[in-house]
Specification:
32% of the residues lie in helices and 26% in strands. The protein has seven helices and ten strands.
């Protein structure tokens, strides 16, 4: 792939004596890339490797031309975990002001991030009193403070209602339109159609890498879930 943002070569990760990822090769470029697969297939492990917080047994992971997790990437990569990563006893605005100082973000970064995730009406609310979806959006706002070149999102829409899910996917595409590479993991197959590119994952392997239309066309399926099942049942690599 030309202009790759992420390049993974021969990645091996062992956890609990088991190879979760074994010899994985992968490239990610601009746009919104969906990493889809069932729970436990290795999605979160792969994302942790991309941001440099996962111990690896072999292989290389480069992001924007640097080893994953290295100092030059600290302000260029945004990462949102499945669990909210904000302080429950602070307000949304207080959390963002704190992280803005840590990240040396500009003076307008807090209000820009609050507006981007639609939390303007809750900027002065204590995070611990917010709904799960609002807390997740507060975590996303933190990741957006430095306008990252790569945004890594681990199941960011879990538990959200359809309207919020739609709004977040619109935000992901706006960020991609502004030049960021957005990598979104999900186990919900109906979100696949919202992606520019799909990586279908099963048992630590990428079993398909194409656009949603290309994945469906490959096996003659009507939807991505059907394509995934056909690939699994057919033993396709």
């Amino acid at each position: 792939m030309m202009n790759s943002v992420v390049a993974v070569r021969g990645l091996r990760v062992v956890r609990g004596g088991r190879a979760v990822l074994d010899g994985l090769d992968l490239e990610v470029g601009a746009g919104v890339t969906g990493l889809l697969g069932p729970s436990g297939c290795g999605k979160s492990t792969l994302l942790r490797a991309l941001v440099g917080v996962q111990r690896t047994a072999a292989g290389t992971v480069e992001v924007l031309g640097h080893p994953a997790g290295s100092r030059p990437l600290r302000h260029r990569v945004g990462y949102v975990t499945q669990a909210a990563s904000v302080y429950d006893d602070l307000t949304v605005a207080e959390n963002l002001r704190f992280f803005a100082r840590v990240l040396d973000a500009g003076p307008d970064a807090v209000e820009r991030a609050v507006a981007a995730v639609g939390l303007g009406a809750h900027r002065d609310a204590v995070v611990g009193r917010l709904s799960g979806g609002q807390r997740s959006r507060a975590s996303l706002a933190v990741a957006l403070l430095r306008s990252p070149d790569l945004l890594v999102l681990d199941e960011p829409t879990v538990g959200l209602d359809p309207v919020l899910r739609r709004d977040l996917w619109s935000l992901f595409h706006r960020l991609a339109g502004g030049g960021a590479a957005v990598l979104v993991s999900s186990h919900v197959m109906d979100e696949a159609e919202r992606c520019d590119r799909l990586l279908l994952m099963r048992e630590g392997r990428i079993i398909a890498d194409d656009s949603p239309a290309g994945v469906k066309r490959r096996v003659g399926a009507a939807d991505v879930e059907g394509a995934f099942l056909a690939l699994v049942e057919g033993g396709a690599a």
